[in-house]
Amino acid sequence: MREGSLEPPVRHPIAWEDPDYYDAEKIEAELRRSSTSAMAVGAASTCATVSRACFDLIEQLGIGELDSVESSDFGPVVDAAHCAICAS
User: Fold this and answer.
1) How far apart (Å, rounded) are the C-alpha atoms in residues 43 and 29?
2) 12-41: average pLDDT
3) DSSP state, 12?
4) Which letter, b or e, does each residue of 78-87 get, where b requires 16 or more Cβ atoms within 10 Å of its Cβ?
5) What would the mean pLDDT of 50-69 be, rounded to a whole number?
6) pLDDT value, residue 84
7) What's the per-residue H, E or C state across 14-81?
């Protein structure tokens, strides 16, 4: 779909029946990838809610980088992830 187009968006099916969909390592890798993307996008003010959640989490835990965050601490970031841009 081109920007400004009247064409319908492309729908990508979710492969929820594929065992890889539930692979814990792949889920964590995607969580970290999308959170890092959300921080970058949020810095551009497109998705400030998720970006702020990431920065707040890092500050609250007293660490310097998102890659130091434990998976179990990502709850606030996941809860804030509500826009389509952050999920891409």
Assistant:
1) 21
2) 81
3) -
4) eebbebeebe
5) 79
6) 44
7) CCCCCHHHHCHHHHHHHHHHHHHHHHHHHHCCCCHHHHHHHHHHHHHHCCCCHHHCCHHHCHHHHHHC
